[in-house]
Amino acid sequence: MIKKGLIVGIMLMASVSFSQDWKKHSVVIADFENKEVYKIRGWNSKGTSHSVVFSTEQVKNGKKSLKLDYTFNPEIPGVKYWTHSWSNREIDPILSSAFKEGVKTLGIGMWIYGDKSGNTFLVRMGDKYGETWNVFWKIDWEGWKFVETEIKKGKKGISYYGGKKGYRGVVDYPLRLLCIEFDFKGGSIKGTIYIDDITLFTDKEVETKIMIFK
Furthest-apart CA pair in the chain: how many Å? Predict the structure, then answer.
């Protein structure tokens, strides 16, 4: 339960120049350093189990990362996946300025410590009219790797569906982060991955307000 009163820290993320137009600016929206802020909830499909904890075992930046242990049972029929979504009451103060009107989220990236499982990690986002955008990567490497994808129709690792206006394949800003997901794709049935520093690439510099609830 969140008690009354809060401490607010404001951090202005420096603009970073890249060669690609879609990576004009970057801002880290989740570094998992403060477990009181990054509360998450999740669920499993039938034949799947998992746990998500804050860990110091494998860390790319800072002192903590998010550790994801998973087990799939391919003998049970059906699509195999597990999903975690943000508890909006805690995460929204951090995301609100990053996803506000007037700021276009052109891409997303993060550090992933892969286990070479061959399964798929994805980030699910929603636009202004409810169209869902999936950004996904096949975990075919071992160790830390920074993965990044432009959020645009026709790009590798992008799928989209639904929304009030149907399957348009047009990003109607602002985008919002909905959840992260891990899907069984015939690879390893048991393993562990870590993620760190979920990063947005935007068309403008973003000022994030980090709120720590007391």
Answer: 50
Cα(122)–Cα(137) distance, integer angstroms: 6
* Of 60, 129, 105, the residue nearest 206 (C-alpha): 105
- In 3D, which of 181, 206, 214 has the Cα closest to residue 96? 206
Please report which residue ranges of 51-169 form alpha helices under DSSP H. 88-95
Could you tell me the two tokens for 59? 């860390």
Q: Output DSSP code: residue 100.
A: S
Domain 6-213 has CATH 2.40.50.320: no
Joined tokens for residue 84 = 């975690």
Alpha-carbon distance 178 to 54, whole Å? 20
Q: Which residues, 6+ apart, have CB-to-CB distance to 74 below 8 Å?
A: 47, 80, 184, 186, 189
pLDDT at 148 over 90: yes
200, 107 contact by CB (below 8 A): yes
In tens, the pLDDT along 123-141 reads: 998 888 999 999 999 999 9
- Count CA atoms within 13 Å of residue 135 on its CB side: 25
| SS3 of residue 174 by DSSP | coil
